[in-house]
Amino acid sequence: MFTTFVHPQAAQRVQAVLRSTFLSEGKLVKEFEKRLSTELGMLHPAALNSGTSALHLALEVAGVGPGDEVILSPQTFIASALVIVQVGAKPVFADIQYQTGNIDPADIEHRITARTKAIMAVHWGGYPCDMAEIQAIARRHGLIVIEDAAHAPGATYQGQPIGSISDLTCFSFQAIKHLTTGDGGALCARSPELAREVMRRRWFGIDRANSPISEIGEREYDLVDVGFKYHLSDYSAALGLANLEGFHKRMQRRRALVKQYRAGLAQVAGLQLLEQRPDRESAHWLFGMHVENRLQFIRALRAKGVSASVVHDGIDHNTLFGGKRLELVNQRRFDETQIHIPLHDGMDSEQVAYILKVINQGW
Ligand SMILES: *Cc1c(COP(=O)(O)O)cnc(C)c1O
């Protein structure tokens, strides 16, 4: 289902860092951030040690704390809701759109209370949420919008890159994501002040740029609030920089493979493709769809050497988040019928043709 893309030049670049012995956060992290901004359109990206750190720090700088509520969809990895609990707030689950796996803007507003602080929009599989509708709701109620864009680097919505739209956007560079630093992430803040706060609080809360080292060799600063040790390291950034090479080419190939999948599956009975609108471009982290007789589908494909699997059913049933499957009609339908077939950077059109042939033989 997934592969880890490591650029052929990565070993050389990481080795150069090891030789230099400057391993921690330094000029390569800066260069990585600069290129995330110029090549992927991210606004003020701060490189961090994981996507989960990005989500946690986003909530911290947004001022989400004990007693607050954050609205999100259950169709995600547990990290999205876990960080909400970590800051003492409560995840409030809204239903999804069956045809996208993304939060349904029409199911948000009636869940807003006096305690609601933020809406977290998870771009399922890399397909952007209805951001215009979500932003409008947030503006009406004075809420912060945080995007969990772990699946969506390189995606665009109404011509704008994901990472430049909302107050805060979180990316993951974990090993099976599009762009990996081994483990890593980025947090983008739209406002320059918030971006500065992110930079400070990712490193203990010390304003590194404005805390000179004194003559006696001690950095001069005053710690005013709680910070974290969430920065990325240069040896990870070296891997990230190598993997950035050819990113757009690989994305183009993914798009071509998706096109081939969609054309080949359009007429297959018992199968429903997910939505694809012209106003947004998915990052295509996953190729998901809905099938009837899912278990038979999985078995039929497995017998021909093709993997097909569910990627995360709704997370609301976890004890930590309430312990029951909520009455969210589309989420429950999605849980029953979602299936994902292989899509990754190691694939070519012949493999897609083979998978299409297998599916067309029926299940
Ligand atoms: C991978 C992922 C995360 C967490 O990212 P890490 O880098 O593994 O911490 C968060 N949200 C979603 C939707 C993810 O897929």
- Distance from first to last alpha carbon: 19 Å
CATH H level, superfamily name of the largest domain: Type I PLP-dependent aspartate aminotransferase-like (Major domain)
Mean pLDDT level: 96
**What's the tally of helices?**
11
Number of strands: 13
SS content category: alpha/beta
Arrangement of strands in the largest sheet: 1-9-8-5-4-2-3
* Share of β-strand residues: 5-15%
Provide the number of structural domains: 2
* Helix proportion: 25-40%
Question: What is the molecular shape?
Answer: globular
Word description of this protein:
This protein has 363 residues and is of the alpha/beta class. The chain folds into two domains: 10-244, Aspartate Aminotransferase, domain 2; 247-360, Aspartate Aminotransferase, domain 1. Helix content is 35%, strand content 14%. The protein contains eleven helices and 13 strands. The chain has a seven-stranded mixed sheet, sandwiched between helices. The longest helix is centred in the C-terminal third of the chain and has 19 residues, at 247-265. The structure holds pyridoxal-5'-phosphate.
